[in-house]
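Next comes a single protein record:
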Amino acid sequence: MKYKITHLNTFEYDSPVEQSLNTIRLKPRTNECQRLLFYDIEIFPNSVTREYTDIWHNPVADFYIPQKHSKLEIQTTSIVSIQKAPLLKQLHFSNKMKDIFESQLFRDHYLHYLQATKYTYLPEHYVKEITQIIGNRHNPIEFSIALMTHLHKNIRYDKTATIVKTTAQEAYELKAGVCQDYAHIMIGILRANGIPSRYVSGYLYVGKEDDLIGDSATHAWVEIMVPGVGWLGLDPTNDVEALENHIILCAGRDYTDVSPIEGVYTGGNHTLSIKVKVKKIDHL
């Protein structure tokens, strides 16, 4: 599958901004199943980006605008090729996988993805409540798939229920939220059960049927580490595996590691509008 993604972020300020310093994570990754074929960024007012890779192996860029401006536009155009990842539902959790999964070396290597963060923490009684419903803690693959389905059925998708700073605990108590909240809740439960998991931001191709949720802006889902296989994705918002319809931008411990745009500026309040278009293409 090949996709062309256009992503426009427009910041409009109440009064002219003196200067701004920004960090963006809008360049799709290249990994075992995904290849970045083309990437371009346009910034207005004009600015030069400084690109680097962060500690989570995400492509990041900084840019600085010194002059006064009343509007900031950041538009990226990407073309990505995706090959289908191994199907989690078809994987057999072998004794060899189990030995690796339970080893101290494995625990130590993925320690960052086993620890709770401010946004993924859930109180122990909530974790126990859900874990008892799911069962089968000894097979992390089956547990993760069952958890995804459980959250999809029991958390209401509601764009008005939460904000970007909502924690997993707050969203779980509301039993409502958006893709970010589904991902944070799922990660909190997985990590509490000893399953290395990470937060993934990216884009979603909904297809002609329009039966998937999350294409109006960046989407979020979860990846678990499967011994001997690698990171494989689950999308609790849609109750599907993250396969050829999911285009990865960044991955980290929670949303704060992968925020698409961060910045500081001198001036008043602002409004942000986001337009994302994901189109399947046959050739470059």
Summary: The chain has two domains: 2-82+259-281, 88-258. Helices lie at 95-101, 104-109, 124-134, 140-154, 168-174, 179-192, 255-258. The mean pLDDT is 93.
